[in-house]
Amino acid sequence: MSDSYLPMPDDWHRALAIVAHPDDMEYGAAGAVARWTGEGREVAYVMVTRGEAGIDGIAPDECAPLREAEQIASAAVVGVSTVEFLDHRDGVVEAGPALRRDLARAIRRHRPELIITLNHRDHWVPGTWNSADHRAVGQSVLDAAGDAGNRWIFPELVEEGHEPWGGVRWVALAGSPQSGHALDVTATIDAAVASLAEHKAYIAALSEAEPAAYARELLTTFGRSSGERFDCEFAAPFELISM
């Protein structure tokens, strides 16, 4: 692979982000979303869980509405007003027909050309293990992108009124160790920082730093490293899979 990233495609109008948990989009991809919505593109979010198992010391029934509210506020910062939750159990998401059906339904409803999800591979980088939920959701998103266009897979979706959608052209994996594309997010890095900082309760469980300081340190460090491979100050990298 070349040391330089290729540019992300820009000949599309609708995108759908599908990730496992509240905050997944904010760890690297929100700057791209802010740029895209600023250009007039449509982006919606689907969370497979409500992140209810994500904060030690806060019981799931209390944690879920807290994290839901933080995600809605976070998405609004980058111009996303549609945030949906599928209510699969946090921490034990299973790849399989039930999840694929739910994702295919969401894809048929939103009819995106681009889908954004997280890295589904075993590792983020060598030596850093990826979570079971991320692996299950990322793999299932790739499968569901194809399922959405086939009326004979999950025919009950057609009975519900969800006609097939075969218009997904790409799935972009954020956080992938095999990223080969990127988007310049220099102009939207502040929005990305503010978006991540909305996850106040989650960040408080991770760090003693103020949420905004935590978010800026993390995102500028990561974004600057990616920018060096894309000839800009800050970049959001993706592994781009054509469908």
The string of secondary-structure elements, in order, is EEHEHEHEHHEEHHHE
Summarize the amount of helix as a percent range.
25-40%
Q: Major β-sheet, in short?
A: 8 strands, mixed
Number of helices: 8
Portion in beta strands = 15-25%
Which structural category do the helix and sheet elements fall into?
alpha/beta
CATH topology: Rossmann fold
Overall radius of gyration: 17 Å
Number of domain modules: 1
Quickly give the CATH architecture: 3-Layer(aba) Sandwich
Architecture overview:
This protein has 243 residues and is α/β, with parallel strands linked by helices. It has a single domain (6-242), classed as Rossmann fold (3-Layer(aba) Sandwich), CATH 3.40.50.10320. It is 38% helix and 16% strand. It has helices at 30-38, 60-77, 97-110, 132-147, 156-159, 189-197, 200-204, 211-227; strands at residues 6-7, 14-19, 42-47, 83-85, 114-118, 170-174, 181-184, 235-242. The longest helix is centred in the N-terminal third of the chain and has 18 residues, at 60-77.
Descriptive keywords:
single chain, 243 residues, alpha/beta, Rossmann fold, eight-stranded mixed β-sheet, 8 helices, globular
Describe the secondary-structure layout:
Elements: E1 6-7, E2 14-19, H1 30-38, E3 42-47, H2 60-77, E4 83-85, H3 97-110, E5 114-118, H4 132-147, H5 156-159, E6 170-174, E7 181-184, H6 189-197, H7 200-204, H8 211-227, E8 235-242
Parallel strand pairs: 1-7, 2-3, 2-5, 3-4, 5-6
Antiparallel strand pairs: 6-8, 7-8
Helix pairs in contact: 1-6, 2-6, 3-4, 6-8
